[in-house]
């Protein structure tokens, strides 16, 4: 039932009756980030697209669609609607409502500031090791520039010899096979590996091509972020819209090859078996994990980007565009990958999962009806899968602790499936332009996502003291990029691919990041509560939307945030931990034959996961000591300042760059109260008696006249 407000004047007379809006929509939404606002209304949506679309999830989604068929795509859409998109809109709405990222948002509840530190550390981990995958694409991009008379370099035998005296190709004769040259190119040219069959631990020399590519990427990231939002907003169109259009063009061309190999569009997903839609739990776990890796794992970056929105920004419009474009590009990538599989099958090859370790395990193409292909009797969709941020694991024997093979490969679409398809077709049948376009699109998506991640890292550091550190933005950006580049050099060695796998296995799994997001939601809705309840946060998303969205979608989304998303995060975190075999990681006993990692590697991996989780209670203890040691004389007031302090809306400055500055650590604290009614003094005694005498005189005069 609608509520009405009666408006009266100073004398108590009714002058108007108005219908009241919902209380959630009455809360002020003028909090603005002290780090600045977007100069263009479309900058936010383009930057947010980098959080949901990257080279890694495009490749991962496409390969999973090949392995599970259309079942996986439908399951992903269902879980995205229930969990993924609500988690994405939660961070988008919270960022715009508070005008803060994961670091400075905890002014609303300082005891939980450790959650922000842990989430920022998680984003820094991801941005540091995943950049190596983008550097690999530069080598493929360079070698795609050929003429129609040439052969792709990954289709040729490698003439160079390794230091162990064995050639890269498995064949001893002059002829070569495509199933040998493509993985040999990735290991020999891209990774510059010299010891494949037997790992040499003493070879720690840097691989110069990989180092050069890393230097180029970090230089681009620094240039794009050196001037803050001013430089970031200018490059978003290049790293967001251009690769999206390129992906549409590429998929249209590849799907146009379908009639050439004689398959119909309804057969494009050969692994689809609708009778297994509810029975195959491995497909559901893969879709559930992919949902989080697409919509949730970079939630801190999404929140930081939307915190720069201006008040009353059309957030629901931005979210809708990002969701539509993300789903469209991922589905197109699935069609692209399955088309490549059909093209390989038309030439007599079968595509099967590989493992990166050695020559005997990294082969992924087999002749149909060959002895190697017949050994894989179990369908791929029934093998054990584990999705990671950069790649995915497919364990053929269902033993997570297998000592020889991990079943892992990074970016299978870009390093296996697509180059093998183009090597098979040849430059005479399809223009090399499409290979150039494919790797250019992946590079653009990858750098765009890297910029979004590192913008969150740099902004999180500056948020510690925004008014002191903001003038040092360029220096902080340079130092952080230089530090990440230095760490990335470890992945440009002979052991680089093993370090990438260790980082992806420990960080890219995301099970501990799910726990951090669960703590974030619980701290916000259960501990802090009003005025930062689910109704208030969802009001930011639909404040400028039509009435139907406010009435129907807002309550459903608020319920989803409070109930469905927390339960889903608990279930998914448990499932990923169990399915990925992480109990082996926490077994620090002597190395046995069933253990893949050494003891020191397992200890390092455990620290990567445990330290961010331990930061939360340790930071809470430190904050408790700080707030209870100083403050108001009343102990209960100090406790309230620790858990639920009074917060004021942030106000933008009048001059300077378009930023919003306020208070201590970027915030002020003045409670907005309803002002008291204006006071009207009573008339003086002489005025009152004079008025009565005048009234009496008038009455006497009227009586005498009568």
From TrEMBL:
Residues that bind Na(+), according to the entry? 50, 57
Q: Which UniProt keywords apply?
A: Membrane, Metal-binding, Sodium, Symport, Transmembrane, Transmembrane helix, Transport
Q: Where is this region: Disordered?
A: 650-689
InterPro entries for this protein: Na/ntran_symport, SNS_sf
**Taxonomic superkingdom:** Eukaryota
Query: What membrane topology is annotated for this entry?
Result: Multi-pass membrane protein
GO CC term, one of those recorded? plasma membrane
Q: What transmembrane ranges does the database entry give?
A: 72-90, 111-138, 205-225, 237-263, 283-301, 321-344, 436-464, 476-503, 509-527, 559-577
Q: In its UniProt record, which GO terms are filed under biological process? A: amino acid import across plasma membrane
- PROSITE patterns registered for this protein in UniProt: NA_NEUROTRAN_SYMP_3 (PS50267)
Localisation: Membrane
Any GO molecular function: L-amino acid transmembrane transporter activity
Can you tell me which family this protein belongs to?
Belongs to the sodium:neurotransmitter symporter (SNF) (TC 2.A.22) family.
Instruction: List the PANTHER family.
Output: SODIUM-DEPENDENT TRANSPORTER BEDRAGGLED, SODIUM/CHLORIDE DEPENDENT TRANSPORTER
Q: Tell me the protein's name.
A: Uncharacterized protein
Which organism's genome codes for this protein?
Aphis gossypii
